[in-house]
Amino acid sequence: MDTSNYVDIAIVGGGMTGAAMALALSDTGLSVCVIEPRPPASAEAGTPPDLRISSLNQANCDFLDRLGAFDAMDASRIHPFTRLAVWEDLAGTTLPGARSRWNRTIFDASEIKADRLGVMVENQVIQSALWSCFDDIDTLSCLTPARLERLTLGEDSVRLTLDCDGVPHDLEAGLVIGAEGARSAVREQAGISIDTRPYEHKAMIVNVQTAAPTLDMTWQAFTPSGPHALLPLFAPADQPDKAWASLIWYDAPARIDALQSLSFEALQTEIEQTFPDELPPIDHISGVGSFPLVRQHAERYVQDRVALIGDAAHVINPLAGQGVNLGFQDVEALSRVIHDALSEGRPWWRQHVLLEYAMKRKWANQLMMSTMDAFYHGFRHQGLPFKLVRNAGLALAGHAGFGRRRVMAYAMGLSHP
Length: 417
Ligand SMILES: Cc1cc2nc3c(=O)[nH]c(=O)nc-3n(C[C@H](O)[C@H](O)[C@H](O)COP(=O)(O)OP(=O)(O)OC[C@H]3O[C@@H](n4cnc5c(N)ncnc54)[C@H](O)[C@@H]3O)c2cc1C
Prior knowledge:
The chain is an alpha+beta fold. It has helices spanning 16-24, 58-67, 123-132, 185-189, 253-260, 264-274, 323-343, 351-378, 384-397, 402-411; strands spanning 6-12, 32-35, 53-57, 79-81, 83-89, 102-108, 118-122, 140-143, 147-153, 158-164, 167-178, 194-210, 217-223, 226-232, 244-251, 282-298, 302-303, 306-308, 314-315.
């Protein structure tokens, strides 16, 4: 083995979960190398938000804080939210006692004596903050731009064949962690199969500037054609009365493609005709993108010398913005298993040790995926009996009590369903 090209742990993918994994391992004394084709670009002051944003729940804000990355984020682009509004469009169905087209409930952090439910922040701001913490860690190296081309699993190590900006490069590692997202090359080359289920909807993300100060509330509505959401973002420093927001529109792929082909002005008119008047008025649109929706779950997360984290292991319906939150929980769990194995002198690269991580996270991720699917499919049924059940559920959620506080604790990442 060429020891000059050897690291204890190679992390393939330096996105949010891969970068967090590198920091979480920084006090183990193990040598770690992050392999990433596109190092993060910092958001320039005064620029509109990037389309890719995350709602970080409070538990994961605390986790990033422990890694030293929360304070490294550009505070002007972090937006806290304290309330969560959930509406259902009754769409012409007359429910007994209904006085409005919308069946609504609001969850408020103050009910559980919390300052906030979480924060909205651009993915690139999170990733840049994590990378900015790499500088002080002697045991951590980065290969970038570099991408994994081939993985050869051996008894004593794993050989990674990389493409470093057109130049081939070989690296040996004791353990490889696949953190390169939904199309994980580590997963594929380790022969781990994946259960993939596409949803019928596509999601369009529209960045809008509102003609109103920023909201402290996320808004989500279930309509017959698919969910709609408005997520509040930061306000520009020089225009505090014109905040950014991310509008999310789920619909049939053909409808999303047609909407995305419109001019920004025509799309704004469509949004104004479709979304409720109570939302803040739109001043202008700054960007649009769309994604097919898919659910994916790896058949296993670990084997000898291989572990998967984040979207490489699981892709969830983004309905409740839980994707990276689950990824950070994977990071916490896997780093704890490696720490414990090291301190007890156990082989941290072996499947039987790594299985402790897989057993902890696989069922929890499965449970969250199934909960999101129950919401997604449950709200699609338009028959009166389904509407009555949902109405009763939202009405119950509208009353103070233990169940309601559990929903909020769950949204904050502080408990399981
Ligand atoms: C519409 C939408 C909205 C969402 N909203 C939210 C939200 O509000 N909250 C939330 O928690 N989650 C949300 N998610 C999910 C979230 O974005 C993902 O779960 C998250 O980005 C996964 O992070 P990751 O680091 O595992 O993977 P990725 O973000 O995909 O990062 C993978 C990294 O690996 C690198 N890479 C790829 N191939 C290779 C290779 N061959 N070699 C080396 N490196 C490679 C890539 O350059 C990238 O940096 C949303 C997703 C969608 C589609």
